[in-house]
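Researcher: We're teaching a course module on how sequence relates to structure. For the next exercise, students receive a sequence and then see the predicted structure as tokens, so they can try to spot secondary structure elements on their own. Here is the exercise chain.
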Amino acid sequence: MPPLPKKKHSRARKGKRNAHNSIESPALSVCNGCDSVIQPHRICNFCGNYKGKTMPGNWDLDNRLESTTSG
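Model: And here is the predicted structure for the students to work with:
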């Protein structure tokens, strides 16, 4: 006969073991410059906009923001 557990595992212990199973998909938002879907608090990979400013670099798309300040 195989060995059996002597006591029942609590719901909290089972919940700790299964905590990683509740991973969700990342949140998404829309870029103000090119209307592409990006993750929040990240630079847009297509036009380089972040918080109303264009970051320095070579970007594929021209941004449509009115206030394009460098630096």
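Model: If you want an answer key for the exercise: The first helix runs from residue 11 to 17. Residues 25-65 form one domain.
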